[in-house]
Amino acid sequence: MGNDLFNKPYEKQKFTGNSDADNLLNDLQNYPHAFVLACIMDRQFKAEKAWMIPYEIKTEIGTFDFTQLLYENLDNIKKIFIKRKLHRFNETMANNFYLGIRMIHDVYEDKASNIWKGLPKSATVVRRFLQFQGVGVKIASMATNILARDFKIKMADKLCIDISPDVQVKRVFTRLGLITMAATNDELIYCARELNPEYPGIFDLSAWEIGRNWCRPKDPFCNKCYLEKWCPKSLIN
Prior knowledge:
This protein is mainly alpha-helical. The chain folds into 2 domains: 11-149, Endonuclease III, domain 1 (Orthogonal Bundle); 167-236, Orthogonal Bundle (Endonuclease Iii, domain 2). It contains 13 helices and no strands. Helix 2 (19-26) crosses helix 4 (47-61) and helix 3 runs antiparallel to helix 7 (90-108). The longest helix is centred in the middle third of the chain and has 19 residues, at 90-108. The mean pLDDT is 95.
């Protein structure tokens, strides 16, 4: 399934369920910073709401042009977050949003697409995402994977596109018997590397979708999952 997702042609990604918001996030040509800033927001909060934040700010200030974002100081950004209740941690994430804008300005010459310009190594793209305030391995890996898998951004390799240590992904790997319940996030990452060293993140979206749709924490819908006949958990049930 991961190979199918990677090899199919680009199609509009539905990050939020809101067509206008998704149009903004998919427009890497004109608004690559929308994608980057949304990735920074995707932390300890429902993903669809986190990815709505760039569009919510666009609605508030009337544009998402990068030159306009540069005019917004930290206090203004915080006021927008608090007014519109954009995140579970409004002040912290407003600060991360603001610092993300400054990083794109200071390091990437106002063009977020410079993060992945010029056939970079996957490790380079992951490392660059890690430089943003509030971004850890999980988000950096996820962002790089979305660029390669969904937006078809060419990279020199996929060796360092790891699986994201998400709770859904970890549950699926555990129930498949690939890791134990006591496994750390690091063990999950290295398990994926062991299974497919050329592109460990190939499993990421498929496992996440299985975990969210069928492999629930309680009363999983094993009969609807395409891995049922290979899953020790379903055989027990």
